[in-house]
Specification:
The radius of gyration is 21 Å and the shape is elongated. The chain is of the alpha/beta class. Helix content is 30%, strand content 24%. It has 8 helices and 11 strands.
Amino acid sequence: MNVVYRNIRRAERSVVDGFGPLGVATVHEAQGRTGLMAPTIRPIYPGARIVGTAVTASVAPCDNWMIHVAVEQCQAGDVLVVAPTSYSDAGYFGELLACSLQSRGVRGLVIDAGARDIRDLKEIGFPVWSKAVFAQGTVKETVGSVNVPVVCAGALVRPGDVIVADDDGVCVVPRRDAASVLAASQAREAKEAKVRERLKAGELGLDIYDMREKLASRGLVYRDQPPED
């Protein structure tokens, strides 16, 4: 069935925005090393960093019709997540669609396919994570669905989930787990801040993380180099 679900449940905005200072790696580790999209999904320009709630679009290969349908369902603070039903690297998305999304306060796009108009997208400051940059266009012929669960670059994304994206990639936080994952991520960030200061002061990770005894139990031996003959 081809369907558009309206008025989706979204993660609470205050919780979503709490992920803003946190990196993808931190969130991924804090939620048990889950939620990462494949490393083929890359930002089209460096330095982009967003968090937001997912609006999803299931689209046919080489057909961006449902992206236009999805725009209507987007609200301020959303991230549009687009997943073709089979492999496609065509340029589904460019500057014109970005202008439409920007007017609605959408924070960015994640697409398991191609994007184009990269210079223009950078100039208007609309961040995109895609698996390809490709000028090949698409058609508008096949109906898909909006705000249904999709698998994007190997990660399950449900409408209203939290999307965290930066130079390291994209991580998905399930809507119902958002508050607990945020707390765990913030705790991890605080712990790493303390470790960072100790490393800067010259302490070794071997000692901070109590690695020496475990390494010895695994058979690691230290020996002084014998003198030369």
